[in-house]
Design brief:
It is a single chain. By secondary structure, the chain is α/β, with parallel strands linked by helices. 27% of the residues lie in helices and 24% in strands. The protein has 13 helices and 23 strands. The strands form 6 sheets. A 9-stranded mixed β-sheet has the order 2-1-9-8-10-11-12-13-14. The protein has a 4-stranded antiparallel β-sheet with strand order 15-16-17-18. The chain has a 3-stranded parallel β-sheet with strand order 4-3-5, sandwiched between helices. Strand 11, helix 9 and strand 12 form a beta-alpha-beta unit.
């Protein structure tokens, strides 16, 4: 059903524990700073191993044993990053949680993960684990031993824990080091949260594997990030970072003169943002695609054309196919569900074997749930989520196509296209739009969409001040569908 690819990623044979890979890089870096926060060097590479060892010893002293889970819900900090590395080193399974989760949500994750230790409000504090720097013998791990469990966002249904092994994480880190041309002297601006794949794995692993300094930000502030660009070379961000940077008049070619790479992910990057950023800075943002279950999957090329609206090509060692519901590969350029296989692919969902079996083909391909197209040259574009597919009058409609058309019109900030119940069509296309021109109205927008097939054109366009987003900047379409579910419902008779 799938085309095959024999490329594989080499990982170190000496030990599968990801920490040893990172520690080996640290040992070559001398007194280079690891973290600089607010202008202060928080840790140097020649202090790295003993600092992590102190936290590892503290975890073990509290009874944590290899294979145990450690659940962490804490604000971003250098200490939190060291705790994660200590968990790897001690052979524990790290379970980070979004800091926005409520106490009731936290109770669910505690019950599901059954952690040996909980670092969260009302439980252990990070300060309770701040051990003195110490030597610590790194626990040996096999390639398939779990390094982390990351819970999916859980916007609909029960949140699932994606089980990621040491080999899953190390293979992805090694590939990205080559793909994005990490080089000696690179400095990363780290302004992402560290409870998520992007900040915890892609950014942190990348910098550590390259023995690079991280300019550490607890959260994103455009002025502070622009200040840091003079001594940095790489920024990894979500699209919101780039729209906020573009809103800052200080962003220009001089401000980014020392930078070599801007990466965007975790949510689709608007073509307008890509174009404006290029015009202002001379840099083409490198958009990539990943997910909790597989880390990074595709990337626009470092050298070569970076095309707005696409996520580039499958990474070396990753096989990708666009398929129908039965897993049959579709002709190029035809939309279907993206399926992937590779050394980065997770080990399954924690304690949900039925859900794992549902999403995994017998030949090892994972059904991502993302609707995509693949060009003749293998370049991938994400059209939307399979669950976001709109079926109106029996016709399949992919929201991303309509969003791109709307976003290109003057006066539009951004858009989200959803399907809502309709008594005649089953579902109707509705566009929820923010505007930069207050005079823009529904009629003008619809006129601008005349080139779309009639069945794709929105039945209604609704204007809002802002689209609902989660902590990583992804538009929450489920919330929009809930809000506007009754839009086409017949009005109740008076007095009923």
């Amino acid at each position: 059903m799938h085309s095959s690819n024999d490329s594989e990623i080499a990982t170190t044979k000496a030990s599968a524990n990801l920490y040893e890979l990172l520690a080996a890089a640290a040992a070559q870096a001398g007194d280079t700073p690891v973290f600089i926060e607010n202008g202060e060097v928080r840790l140097r590479y020649d202090e790295f191993d003993r600092a992590v060892g102190g936290y590892a010893a503290a975890l073990v002293s509290r009874g944590a044993q290899p294979g145990d889970r450690i659940l962490v819900q804490a604000e971003k900090s250098v200490e939190g990053a060291l705790l994660y590395l200590a968990a790897l080193r001690a052979g524990l399974i790290y379970v980070p949680l979004n800091t926005a989760y409520t106490a009731a949500e936290l109770d669910y994750f505690i019950a599901d993960a059954e952690p040996a230790l909980i670092v969260a409000p009302g439980h252990l504090d990070l300060a309770d684990l701040a051990g003195a720097p110490a030597g610590f013998e790194t626990v040996a791990r096999g390639p398939d031993d779990l390094a982390a469990i990351l819970y999916t966002s859980g916007t609909t249904g029960r949140s699932k824990g994606a089980m990621l092994s040491h080999a899953n994480l190390s293979s992805n880190a090694l590939v990205l080091k080559d793909t994005w041309r990490w080089r000696r002297g690179d400095v990363l601006i780290h302004a992402l949260p560290i409870y998520h794949v992007h900040g915890l794995f892609v950014a942190l692993h990348g910098a550590l594997l390259n023995s690079s300094t991280m300019l550490w930000h607890q959260s994103f502030d455009a002025d502070a990030v622009i200040d840091d660009m003079a001594r940095a070379t790489i920024l990894m961000g979500v699209p919101t970072f780039y729209t906020r940077l573009l809103a800052n008049p200080r962003l220009d070619r001089e401000a980014v003169a020392n930078m070599r790479l801007f990466v965007s992910g975790s949510a689709p990057l608007l073509e307008a943002t890509f174009g404006e950023f290029g015009a202002r800075t001379g840099h083409r943002i490198l958009e990539r695609y990943g997910m909790t279950e597989a880390g990074m999957i595709c990337s626009n090329p470092y050298d070569g054309e970076r095309i707005a609206g696409t996520v580039g090509f499958p990474l070396p060692g990753v096989e990708a196919s666009v398929c129908d519901d039965a897993g049959r590969e579709l002709p190029r350029s035809e939309p279907g569900v993206l399926e992937i296989r590779g050394p980065n692919l997770f080990q399954g969902y924690w304690r949900q074997p039925d859900k794992t079996a549902e999403d995994m083909r017998p030949d090892g391909f994972f059904v991502t749930g993302d609707v995509a197209t693949m060009a003749a040259d293998g370049r991938v574009a994400i059209v939307g989520r399979a669950k976001d597919l709109i079926i109106a009058g029996g016709l399949n409609i992919y929201p991303r196509e309509i969003e791109l058309a709307i976003d290109a019109l003057p006066g539009v900030g951004e858009s989200a296209v959803i399907g809502v119940p309709h008594p005649d069509l089953g579902e109707a296309v509705v566009a929820v739009v923010t505007r930069t021109d207050a005079a823009l109205d529904e009629a003008a927008l619809l006129a601008g969409l005349a080139d779309l097939a009639r069945f794709k054109q929105p039945r209604r366009i609704l204007f809002v001040d802002a689209l609902p987003r989660n902590a990583m900047g992804k538009v929450q379409k489920a919330a929009l569908r809930e809000t506007y579910a009754g839009l086409f419902s017949p009005a109740l008779p008076t007095g009923s």
